[in-house]
Amino acid sequence: MGLINDNPENPFKEAIPGSPAFITSIDKVVNWARSNSLWPLTFGTSCCAIEVMMAAGAAHHDLARFGAEVARPSPRQADLLVIAGTIVKRMEPLLKTLYDQMAEPKYVIATGACAISGGPFIYDSYTTIRGAHEVIPVDVYVPGCPPRPEAFFYGLLTLQKMIIEGQTIAKPFERRKPVLSVLPPRIKLEQIRDELVKNLTARSVTDLNQNPKELGL
Amino acid sequence: MKSLSFYIHNLYQNQQWLDFILYLGLGLILTLSLMSVVALVLVYAERKIAAHFQCRLGPMRVGWHGTLQTVADALKLLLKEDLIPKAADRFLFALAPFLTVMAALLSLSVLPFSLSATLSNMNIGLLFLSAISGYGVLGILIGGWASNNKWSLLGAMRAGAQLISYELSMTLSLLSIVVLSGSLNLNEIIASQAQGWWIWRAHLVGFISFVIYIISSTAETNRTPFDMAEGESELTAGFHTEYSGMRFAFFFLSEYVNLFIVSAIGSILFLGGWMPLHIGEWESFNALMDFVPGPIWFLLKTGALIFLSMWFRWTFPRLRVDQLMRFEWKFLLPLGLINLFLSSIIALGGFYFFP
Amino acid sequence: MSQTIESFKLLLENAFSEPLTYLEASQLLTIKVQENQLFATLKTLKETLKFDALIDHAGVDWPNENKIELIYILFSTHHNQQIMVSADIDRNQPTPPSVSSLWAIAEWQEREVFDLLGVTYKNHPDLRRLFLEDNWVGSPLRKDYKDDFILERPW
Amino acid sequence: MVTLNDRISCHTPNQDGTTTQEYFINMGPQHPSTHGVLRLILKMDGETVNDIIPVLGYIHRGIEKKAEAVGYRQQVHLTDRLDYLCALMNNWAVSAAIEKALNLEVNDRIQTVRTIIAELQRIQSHQLWWGVFGMDLGAFTPFLYGFRDREKITEIFEKTMGARLTMNYFQPGGMMYDIHPDFVKDIKEFIKYFRPILKEYEDLFSGNIIVQERLKNVGIIDAQTALAYGATGPVLRASGMPLDLRKMQPYGAYSKVNFTVPVGTVGDSWDRYQVRIQEMYQSLLIIEQLIDNIPDGPHMTMKYAAKIKPPAGRYYTQMETARGIFGTFFVSDGNDRPYRMHFRTPNFNNLWSILKMAPGGRVADLVAILSSIDLVVPDMDR
């Protein structure tokens, strides 16, 4: 639909005609409706699709609680594009088409290491795109390989929060704000790392005595 | 034509036109609001019922137990961008959803919610209903054609073939009730069931036509196991693949309103409509039942049939398109014809229970 | 059904008129054949010895010796035996015969080898790239494949 | 020899001198029933599918190239991403290949635990297939039921391995960690729970007349054609050929257990369905026989950080995963990285039998057939 122009400088930035004129309580209601009715597109390329699209939607985790179980097979009717899996060079134009075919407002969640950065295939691979944001703008990134359904829920709730706060609605084509959605608040990466080292040494599950430095710990 | 001009002339003469306009406007508003309420409630009910069939909870977060979920969905769909594909036939593409909604709206206007609460008490109500329900398929056909998408077209063609075929069985099963009750007026059909509902009063005939009606009405509303036209796993989204936002919401809406309408017709013809449940000689029980107002009875019976339809949807897999046709033309249609013949015999001889 | 390797070798040698060359550096029983003998050998294996399944077909690039080694892994449901056939072909003009007339699956396994190693099979019904785009340049699994897109590991 | 040009001509002459004009329709890569990013170009006559041209590569990540750049131990995590529904069986296959190359014998404990876990994974994979199969036929509820029970196995795995889908658990020489203390208890509970559920699956789905109408005599393929087209696993067994490596070339602890290999008779979708359902029963049997007598011993027979350098040569090892034969072919030049790594993946080889199954059927049949083959697209494209 040509919503994304071909301007090389900022491909995702383009003012749409009739930008939001009233940012009032009506906007609040609209944002409430949009955030609570995120219909995902049934789109999954690899492993993450099982965890994020299927296991999250299934009985144990139940995506329906958030009103997001109405998976639409047609991009026209979907609001949320969950990039679940690796994007390779051959898929790139198709992903772009899918994104273009979706009607505004549309949101994108990139799940899994592959969709964030290329993941295990970032090096030595001749086809893997290193991150879905190289193709389309991404609202929320959910790390994991693949992320647990709970992690995906955290990402979904983060997106809902972003919509309610108007972070995506006000500037529809500037959605490159990465959100570390899985790491719970007040926990730092260093803490996790220290705990990991402690646990690994305590359980001595592996032969760490040889040369811990070689293992990168 | 003469009678119409005479009628309009009469309106001006007697100053009834104001009443007429008021009546029209009020009716339109009532029907429209009824339609949206029905759709919102049914979509919520479907999602909740499906969830509980599947050991889940369904919508929980928006409002108490997710009651506002469909409101949010409707609001979102209203405000979503409206896309028209470049290659689509713009006029027909825009027209199609309205045709479908119009059919649903027109059907709603003749449903008797109680003896008095009916917008227009036509004396050919049933004929009107079956005519209008056949017209709803036009929207689907036009929508699938105008989308200029092969999957849409496949879905639309399937829908056309299916609806036209199942229309026959549906009309035949309606006809046997018409024969039994001797009227096309919906209120009179209900009144004829004062002694007992047609589903069991006319020996097996009423029950058979009820079964035929349920099957063909499920096909009429394009629901599993007859959801050829949408067939998510086969045709992506069928005839509404290219529709987005409001236009898609119209298809969505009319699907659920149609579900309500066919269930309502089923409850009118076979379950006595707004008639309370009476059991033979149990006087006090019958008196208690009479205490419940007619619209409640009507909605209860309709709700039961809607639940049945939802039960089908979340249990059965989809039929294949040729099996669907074979089932209609080789089994359902002959059965309907035989049933109609038998019901004529019963009606002529007055062989039903409690004559 | 199952036989020992020795009795199977005997069966194998009886089927061929010429003596067979075995490849020692291999885990499976491996026959080494010349490019011009490839099709005939595989045909005999299929028709006389009833190797009815072509389990796998792959190529190995050896740039130093200027050859591409084609590997055919066959399985016989009759003998419950497996055999590997290895053939060296010229690296610059790799034109081995296609065996898709013997096993249908070879058509796509060969397409994969064509795609990733640039081996152009003769008499192949539909030799196109399988995984990569049609306008892709080069064969990624060759050892000297260069691509600006590839990120080398920094450590 | 039918070339592509013949296949893409849209005018098929009829017997009475007329020609049928066919049209092409594009199914995928984003289509709900291709289970990923498989693309099929269908040549159709009305609703009838006359020819199929599969297009692959929408998830080709170049795993074989990547494998040449990483050490032998790291191959295991690459196989997780191939067929993620049998991740552990793939882990086992590649670990066993490296062990064989090193002439390393692993102890009985490792073999038994590996067998139990592989069979659990087989059940898990078939559960998911059952659910998705139901969804493809238009019934949404089986999908939820299948996932509800799959989650039970996922929890057992998670306790031991710390991951839900890509476990990376079996290593060359053993397992990453020892099994969780609750492992045996959990599995026993699961078996007790799952046997009646499996019966319920059959009541809910197999007994349904619509399912039987949709599946019986649809997509028939005979055993020899299926084998020639590369099919293995349940697809081949449904055609009547009992090719099961667990029986024919026993590995792990399979030689110690009694089980039968379910085979079909007709080779239609219904047989493929039945074979998988019966395989779940057989897997339960195998687990029951092994779960009570897991031998003692260490869970790892080689040092974790040791570099693996197999002697130069060509190695091929194959195993039976839930979808067919998974083979690992690698060439070593004596270094700590493989010179060439090639995976024989079951899905890539299973796909092509649809060219024999689907033509002549409807689109709905094609969807049922695709689903009955049980494809995992990343495994196909590698």
Structure description:
Chain A is mostly helical. Chain A has helices spanning 25-36, 47-55, 92-101, 112-117, 149-164, 189-203; strands spanning 80-84, 107-111, 140-142. Chain A has a three-stranded parallel beta sheet with strand order 1-2-3. In chain A, helix 4 links the parallel strand 2 (107-111) and strand 3 (140-142). Chain B is mainly alpha-helical. Chain B is built from 14 helices and no strands. The longest helix of chain B has 37 residues, at 17-53. Chain C has a domain at 5-92: NADH:ubiquinone oxidoreductase Nqo5 subunit (Beta Polymerase, domain 2, 2-Layer Sandwich). Chain C has three helices and five strands. Chain C has a five-stranded mixed beta sheet with strand order 1-2-5-4-3, covered by helices on one side. Chain C is an alpha+beta fold and 155 residues long. Chain D has two domains: 4-55, no CATH class; 64-381, Cytochrome-c3 Hydrogenase, chain B (Orthogonal Bundle). Helix content of chain D is 46%, strand content 14%. Chain D has 16 helices and ten strands. In chain D, helix 5 runs antiparallel to helix 6 (141-161) and helix 5 runs antiparallel to helix 12 (269-291). Chains in contact: A-B, A-C, A-D, B-D, C-D. The B-D interface holds B 50, 53-56, 150-151, 154, 158, 224-225, 227, 231-236, 314-323 and D 23, 25, 31-33, 47, 134-141, 144-145, 148, 205, 208, 210-211, 213-214, 362-365, 367.
Count of discrete alpha- or pi-helical segments spanning 4 or more residues of chain A? 6
CATH class of the largest domain in chain A: Alpha Beta
- Share of helix of chain A, binned: 25-40%
Q: Over all CA atoms, what is the radius of gyration of chain D?
A: 22 Å
What Rg of chain A do the Cα atoms give? 19 Å
Q: How far apart lie the N and C ends of chain A?
A: 50 Å
Overall morphology of chain A: globular
Mean pLDDT of chain A: 72
Order of helices and strands of chain A: HHEHEHEHH
Number of strands of chain D: 10
User: What is the top-level CATH class of the largest domain in chain D?
Assistant: Mainly Alpha
Structural class, judged by helices and strands of chain D?
Answer: alpha+beta
- CATH fold assignment of the largest domain in chain A: Rossmann fold
Structural domain count of chain D: 2
Profile the largest sheet of chain D.
3 strands, antiparallel
Quaternary form:
heterotetramer
Q: Largest chain interface and its two residue counts?
A: A-D, 43 and 45 residues
